[in-house]
Amino acid sequence: MAVSVKEVAAEAGVSVGTVSNVLNRPQVVSERTVDKVAAAIEKLGFVRNDAARQLRAGHSRNFGLVVLDARNPFFMDVTQGAQRRALDNGYTVLMGSSDSSLTTEGQLLDLFEEQRVAGVLISPMHSDLSRLWKIRDSGTPVVLVDRGSGDRSFSSVSVNDVEGGRIAAQHLVDLGRKRIAFVGGPQSIEQVQHRLEGAQSIIAGTADAVLQYLPTAQLTVLEGRAVGERILAMEPEQRPDGIFAANDLLALGILQALVMSGSLSVPEDIALVGYDNIAFAESAVVPITTVRQPAEEIGRTAVDVLLREAEAGEDAVREQFVFTPKLVIRESTVGADNAS
Amino acid sequence: MAVSVKEVAAEAGVSVGTVSNVLNRPQVVSERTVDKVAAAIEKLGFVRNDAARQLRAGHSRNFGLVVLDARNPFFMDVTQGAQRRALDNGYTVLMGSSDSSLTTEGQLLDLFEEQRVAGVLISPMHSDLSRLWKIRDSGTPVVLVDRGSGDRSFSSVSVNDVEGGRIAAQHLVDLGRKRIAFVGGPQSIEQVQHRLEGAQSIIAGTADAVLQYLPTAQLTVLEGRAVGERILAMEPEQRPDGIFAANDLLALGILQALVMSGSLSVPEDIALVGYDNIAFAESAVVPITTVRQPAEEIGRTAVDVLLREAEAGEDAVREQFVFTPKLVIRESTVGADNAS
DNA sequence: TTATGAAAATGAATCGTTTCAATCACCCGA
DNA sequence: TCGGGTGATTGAAACGATTCATTTTCATAA
User: Fold this and answer.
1) Do A283 and B285 touch (CB under 8 A)?
2) Would A105 disulfide with which of A98, A120, A198, B4, CB 3.0-4.6 Å?
3) pLDDT tens digit string along A172-186?
4) What share of chain A is helix, strand, coil (3-state, %, to 5)?
C-alpha cells in the first residue's frame, strides 16, 4: 500500500540512492534530476518512512519529556516551550505524564528507550537517579527539568525552590501572620520538599511564628479542596492565618473551599500564597498571590541544553541553569481594599 | 553501543529467531530456554528497538492526536482520556496542538504520516477534509474528535454543539436578558460556528431579543480580556446584558476585564455563560455558568472507535457518537444571592 | 531398535532508508 | 585525440526485529 523510495526511483528512472540524495542533500544532485524525482514523489504521494530512517540512524529525532502532571498548566507551559524550541531544530517532543507515580515514570522511560529518543527531559519524582544514569550510560543525554542535580552529575534547568519557599513565607510573615501552614505533598517530590525547607528557614528565624505542615497525596485542586475542608473544621485558635500552598492548583482548591463555606474570608482571616503563577491564579475568585516560575523559558532552555549535549556526545559539559522565582502579589494576601 | 537481539542470542547460546520468540510468543519456547534468554537480556540490558520492529510491521503502535489548543484544559482532559485508554490496549498517543493554524495542523499530519501512526484522532480546523481522505485511503484510520462528520464518511465522536448553543442562549433568555452577545472565533472553527447557530436559533424565536456577534481571533483568556475591554467601552444602551462565550477561557478573560474595571458587575449587569466546564470555571472570581462536555469520555470513546477501525481494516463500519451537552449553572448567571 | 509425530529451535529473507565506495558522463586543456 | 578531473549517479551493504519454512530433538509406540 505504502510507496517506498524504490517505486519513486523506478517512476523517475533513477536509482534509490539518488532519490535519497534528493531527499537529504539536494545540492549534490543535478537540478534536472531533482525535478524528475520531485515530480515522481508528488505523483505517487510518497511519504518517508521514519522507522526505516531511524533504524539506519540508530536514534530518532524525538526527545522524550516526562512531567509530573500533564493537567497542571505549569507543565503545559513548560511543554509548550520545549515543543516549540525542539521543532525549530527539527526535533519533536513526546510528552508523557508520570502523574506522580514511580511506576508510570518507569513505564514512560521504558517507552522512550524503546523509541530510541535522542534525549530525555525529565522532572523526576525522587532523588534516586540510578535509572537515569543507566540511560545516559547507554548514550542518551538526560536533562533534569524543574529540579536541580545536587552533585551536578546531570545537566539541569530549574528554579531555586528553597528561595521560592523563603519568598512566600517571608511575605506572609511581613503581613504579620504568625500561624503559617504549608500545604503540599508527597514529600518524595523534591520540589515540594525544598519549598517547605525554605518556608521553615524563615519561620524558624521569626519570633513566635509557627509552621504546621498539612500533607497532601497530590498537588491537585481536589486535594486542595479537601485541605480547605480540614482547615474549616479546625478549632479557631489553632487555625492558620497564613497558608503557603506548594502549587497554584492546591491554592485554588483551598480557596474554593474557604470561599464556598462563607465563614472565613481571604485574605482577612487567612492569607493565601500559591506557587507557579499559572494563568488561572489571576482569574480566581480572589486572585491568588503566587511565586512565579518562568515555565516556557524552562522548557526552551532545557531543550537548548539537550541539543548541546546531543551534539557534544561523550564529552558533553554539564550545565546547571537555576532561575530565580519572583513573588507576584495579588488580593489573596493583600486584599482589594488595601491594594488600591 | 546499543545491544541487539543478535548479541542476546550469542550470550544465551540460541538463535535470533528464538530470542524473538521469547519476546513475542514465549509459549512456543521451552521454559528452560526462556529463562536462559531472559537472563541474557537482563545481563546485557537489552532494550527492543522499536524502529526495527515498526519497519517490519509496516506501522507503529502510536496513535496521533491533533487538538486545537494544548493549553486549553478541555483538550488536556480529552488527551488524558485518550492516553489512558490507548495505554490499556498497548498503544501510545502522540499529541500535537494545531494552535488553530492550518499550517501547523498540516505539519502535524505530515509528521504522523512519516511516523506511520496506527491511526489519527483529530479535531480538525475546517470542513475541507480532503487531506484526511487521503490519509485514510493510504490505510490509516481517522476519527474526528469533538466534531461531527456531516456526511458520516468518517467516524466521529462529538458533542451536539448546536444544542449546546441553544441551551446557553435559552438560559440567558430565561433570565430575562434581551441584548445577547456571542463571543468567539474564528468562524472557520466549526464548533464555534455551530454554537453560534444554536444561539441564533433561540434568539430568532424570542420577541425583542437581539444577538450581536463579537468575533475573536482565538479562543484564549487574552482574547477574552480584550473583548471585555471592548464591552466596557460600549455605550450603555448598546452594551449586552448577557454574554455567551464560545469557551471557558474566553469567559474567564471577559470576566477578568469586567471585574477588574469595577464598573460592571456579573451577573447583575451582565450575565455570562461559558462552554466546556473546565475545572477552573468553578474557581473563577465569579464561578462561571457553562455548558459541560464530557471531555475524558470523548477521548476514551474516540480511541475505542479507532481501535475498532484499525482492527476491521478495509471494511470498517463508520460510527458516529454524539454526546449531549449539559448546562451547569453557577453564579455568573444566577448570582450568589438568588442562588442560596 | 526403529518409526512417527509433536515440540523446539533455526536462519535466511524481509521491511525502507541511508551511506559510501565505485563507476560513469562529460568537459577542458594539452 | 587523449588524459585528467569534476560532478553526477549507482548499487550493494547495513541498521535490528520478525516471520516462516525447514531442520533438529526427543519421547513414545510399535
Assistant:
1) yes
2) A98
3) 999 999 999 999 989
4) 50, 15, 35
